[in-house]
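Limitations
The structure tokens in this dataset are predictions for the assembled complex, not deposited experimental models. Users should treat interface geometry with appropriate caution, especially where small molecules or nucleic acid strands are included. An illustrative entry is reproduced here so readers can see what is and is not provided.
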Amino acid sequence: MASKFTHADLEAYLDEALVPTEMSEIESQLRTDVQLGRELAAINARRDAGVHTLGEIWRRQRISCPTREQLGSFLLGALAPEQADYIAFHIEKAGCRFCRANHDDLKAQQEEANDAVATRRKKYFQSSAGYLRK
Amino acid sequence: MKSASETDRLLIKRIRSGDGDAWGDLISRYEGRLLAFVESRIGRRAASEDIVQEAFVGFLTSLPNYDGRRSLESYLFSICAYKLTDHMRREGRRPALPLSAGADSGGEWQLASSARGASSIARSGERRNLEETAIVEALQQQVSRWKERGDWVKLQCIELLFVRGWANKEVAGELSITEQQVANYKFDFLARMRAIVRKQGLSEDIFPEIYSE
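Predicted assembly:
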């Protein structure tokens, strides 16, 4: 049975870069669909053999991603309509996980209580600062 | 290839010398987007924070390997994605893949020797990076040109075709253009990519999709 996912979707799945709902769908289907597992293994084998795809390079190198500043302006409604439409497309239709994360973070910053953020940052610092070079 | 910004380069330099304030600045700068990335996938705040915490520790322990040619944000996202995948595997949510693609599915891509050494794979990684760098600049120039000219439909068309892998018909429907227009945009884009591959002296075999049309 051919999978309903495109080759590009499966590559994005392997890179943890597909939209979360589709990541979960693939994980669910993998439990019963042996062929899907083989398709993913074949992609890994192609990569190991040195074959590139434009999609994986585009995604990994963030070729068309807007800057974080542009995402901030998008949230403020301060971009030209065509540029704003493109950013909405890039997040919703192209499904860019990294820009979605930046977008959601900027949005949360507008809404989240400052003390909650400060507590979280302190926790990260205390748990990792011991690994700094002495 | 997008490299680290000047601000990030200075931060990294200070962190490498053990500056705790710089490390605190980096955490403040990046933790929110990393948390949003992880939480969108697993949906639980406490577990998401644990994964981001592991990613920051992972960043410091891998810092000697970070060369600054890659954007700091992309590097942090890649560490976070690795920690997230690891977490999903431990929880049994991400099934293991078969080691072989099997004879009936992509078997032609199986390696000639199953006993391929780690050093051989590492060399391939270096070569892949060089090949990738050669084409990244061309892609970035093309996308910048489309953005400057306001060719948003062309950009969306190519992104759906190559990044999402959609068929011409689906792309045409989504963007309200004809299938012929999609085919024309695709033809022009692939012709440009083929020219770049030729100019850079790269083998056609490593970019088969560019020659498949």
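Some entries come with short summary sentences. For this one: The domain at 6-90 of chain B is CATH 1.10.1740.10 (Rna Polymerase Sigma Factor; Chain: A).
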